[in-house]
Amino acid sequence: MIQFSINKTVFLHALNITKRAISSKNAIPVLSTVKIDVTGEGITLTGSNGQISIEHFISVQDENAGLLVSSTGAILLEATFFINVVSSLPDIILDVQEIEQKQVVLTSGKSEITLKGKEADLYPRLQEVSTVKPLILETKLLKQTINETAFAASTQESRPILTGVHFVLTDNKKLKTVATDSHRMSQRKLTLDKAGDNFNVVIPSRSLREFTAVFTDDIETVEVYFSNNQMLFRSEHISFYTRLLEGTYPDTDRLIPTDFKTSVIFDAANLRYAMERARLLSNATQNGTVKLEITNGLVSAHVHSPEVGKVNEELDTLDVTGQDLVISFNPTYLIEALKAVSSEQVKISFISPVRPFTLVPNTENEEFIQLITPVRTN
Amino acid sequence: MIQFSINKTVFLHALNITKRAISSKNAIPVLSTVKIDVTGEGITLTGSNGQISIEHFISVQDENAGLLVSSTGAILLEATFFINVVSSLPDIILDVQEIEQKQVVLTSGKSEITLKGKEADLYPRLQEVSTVKPLILETKLLKQTINETAFAASTQESRPILTGVHFVLTDNKKLKTVATDSHRMSQRKLTLDKAGDNFNVVIPSRSLREFTAVFTDDIETVEVYFSNNQMLFRSEHISFYTRLLEGTYPDTDRLIPTDFKTSVIFDAANLRYAMERARLLSNATQNGTVKLEITNGLVSAHVHSPEVGKVNEELDTLDVTGQDLVISFNPTYLIEALKAVSSEQVKISFISPVRPFTLVPNTENEEFIQLITPVRTN
C-alpha cells in the first residue's frame, strides 16, 4: 500500500500538468481520475481523455521534489477534487498513505484529510509507442510552428481530417506543416538541424494546442516518436501521447498560387487594427465581409451594414504594385493570419477578386505562407 | 446636430463607467443605448437599467478631455457597440458629427465610421432626486462599510427586503449598516465626521456593489441625497442613482446575543484556510456542514462525507475561554465572514450548539459584528 512524502509545490505542479489531459465530464467515468503509480524510482501521474494522455514522472533523485517513498503501489483518485485538496493543504510537506479499502490519508501540518480512491486496475491501458530512434526537435521551434498553423485547422467535424495539422518530413530534414479549414490555409516549411526518419501524419489541432501549454519554454528539446495511430512527445519528466487522425490529407501544394497581379506591403499591426474596426461592422452585415479597394496605389477598406452603419478607411501601405483590384473577404481570417505573423511587415498578393490571396512575412527566406479565400459579393 | 471632438481615452473611460448601469439584454430595448447630451458646458453620458442610472459629465473646462463642442444636441447610440467602435479607433483624438437621419460619423486618423443612432426623446425620464442638503461621506469609508456588509444580503427574491442593505442614520452622526439573509448577518456601526439629516433606507446590495466599482479610490468624498424611493451618490463627474427597496427592514438589534459561554480567538487567515479545506469535503455531504469541537482548550474541525472522505484538523488558536462545545455550520458563511474582516485576529463567541455565534475583529473599539446561525445535525 502506497506511502510517500513529497514537496507540495512540486507535486501540485505535476498534478496540474497531468490534469490538462483530464476532462471531468468524460463518457468513461474512470478517466476523470488521475492515476498515481509509486515505485522505488519515483511517482508517475497519468491523466487521459482518450485522445490525449499525459504522464508526469517525479523522480526520487529530484532534490526539489523531496520525494521519499516508503511503500509502493498504485491508486486512482478523482483528479479535480484531489488537486483542490492538495492545493489547500497548510504545510509545504505532504504525507500520503494508503489505508484499507483504497482510502488515502493526506497529512500536512495539523490537517488530516482522508479520500476514497479506486483500484488502479480499473484504469484503461492507454497507449503503446515504442521509444526507439527519436526525432529530436527544439521545443521553441515546434511550438512556433504550431502557433503559425494550428489556428487555421477546421473546428467542424464534417471533414474530420481538416481538424488536424499535416506534418510531413521529407529528405530526413525538410519539415512541412499545413493546416486548412478550406476557407484559409497556413503553411510553414523549415529545415531541421538533426535528421530523422521521414513521416507523414495528421495531428489533431486540439492536441497540439494542449502540447504548447504543457511543454513550457524551459524544456529545450522534445523527443518525438510515432506508432501506427499514435504519437508521443517526450521530455525528461513528461510523456505526451496523442492519437493521430486517420485518412489522407488533401494535396495543398497545388492551392498555392504564383501568378500574382497585385501586391501590397502593410504594417502588420496597423492592418490588423483596421480589420478589427471593419469586423465590428461586418459582423452586422449579411455576408460578414470587408471590401478592400486598391486604386491608383491607394488602398481602402469599406463595410456597409444597412442596420448598423458603415466604415470607410484609407489604409497605410508601404508599397503597392500591380493592377487595381476590388476584393471582399471575412476580416476575421485576415486578423487571425496577421496574429500568426511575427514580422512587422507583411506582403499580401492578389490574382483576382475570386482567387485566394496570399500573405507572407515581408522578410527574406521565411518559408511561411498563408492563403485566404475571398467571398463573392455579387 | 451634435458636433464635438474629444480625447479618446477620456471619452472611453466615461463611457465605460456609464456602461456599468447598462444591460445589453434589457426588457426595455432603449435602455441598451447610451444617451449622449451635448451642451455648451460639456457632455453628459447616461446609462440605466431601470434600477441603477449613471450619469457621467465631461466638462469643456477639463483640460485632459480636450473637449471642443461645435454644435449641441442629444442622441442615443447602442452602448456596447459604440464603446467597441470608439475603443478601436486609431487616433488619440476623435471627431463626432451628427448627420441626417440620426446618424453619427466618427472620424479618427484615416478611419471614418458611420453609426445609426436613435432619437434622444425615446429615452425614458429616469430619476428626480433634489440636490439640497447633501450628506457628505468619505468614499473610502462608505466602500469599506459596503464591503463589510453587502455580501451578507440575500440573493433570493423570496423576501425582497433582505436583498438590500439597511442604512440608518440616527443622532445625525451615528450610521448603522446591516445586511442579513436570515442565515447570517453583518453589522457595522460608525460615527460620521460631518452631521446630516437622519435617514432610514434599504439599498439594493447589487446597487451598492456597482457603487464600489464606479467610485474609484481617487474620488475622496461623495455627496448623498435621498428622495422618496431613490437615492443619489454624486461626485464631481459622476451621478449614481439607485432605487430604494420598499418595506420595513426587520429589527436586527434583538438578534445580537450577549450571554456567551465560550470564546475563541483565531488567526483570521489560518482559520479561513482550514475552513476552505473543510468546505472541499463538506460540499459532498448531505447538510454541507463542518463540525467544530472545543474540548479542554483544544479546537478541532471535522467533516465526514460517506462518499468522498473526511477531514480532521486541529485548529491553531490564540485563546480559548469558557465551556466545551460542539457546533455545526456551513463553512462558506464563516469563510465569507472572515474575508470581510481586515484585522489579523478574530474573536468568535458561542452560546450553545443551536444559537447563532458571533464573530468580531479582535481589536478594541471596532463596531463590526457578524452573526452565523448553526445547523442542527441530529
TrEMBL record, chains A, B:
Domain DNA polymerase III beta sliding clamp C-terminal: 254-376
Cellular compartment(s): Cytoplasm
Keyword list, A-Z: Cytoplasm, DNA replication, DNA-binding, DNA-directed DNA polymerase, Nucleotidyltransferase, Transferase
Gene Ontology terms for molecular function: DNA-directed DNA polymerase activity
Domain of life: Bacteria
One Pfam family hit: DNA_pol3_beta_2
Gene3D superfamilies named among the record's database cross-references: 3.70.10.10, DNA Polymerase III, subunit A, domain 2
Ranges where the DNA polymerase III beta sliding clamp N-terminal domain occurs: 3-126
Boundaries of every DNA polymerase III beta sliding clamp central domain copy: 137-251
Function: Confers DNA tethering and processivity to DNA polymerases and other proteins. Acts as a clamp, forming a ring around DNA (a reaction catalyzed by the clamp-loading complex) which diffuses in an ATP-independent manner freely and bidirectionally along dsDNA. Initially characterized for its ability to contact the catalytic subunit of DNA polymerase III (Pol III), a complex, multichain enzyme responsible for most of the replicative synthesis in bacteria; Pol III exhibits 3'-5' exonuclease proofreading activity.
Family per similarity comment: Belongs to the beta sliding clamp family.
Subunit structure: Forms a ring-shaped head-to-tail homodimer around DNA.
Protein name: Beta sliding clamp
Annotated organism of origin: Streptococcus oriscaviae
Upper taxonomic lineage: Bacteria, Bacillati, Bacillota, Bacilli, Lactobacillales
Gene: dnaN
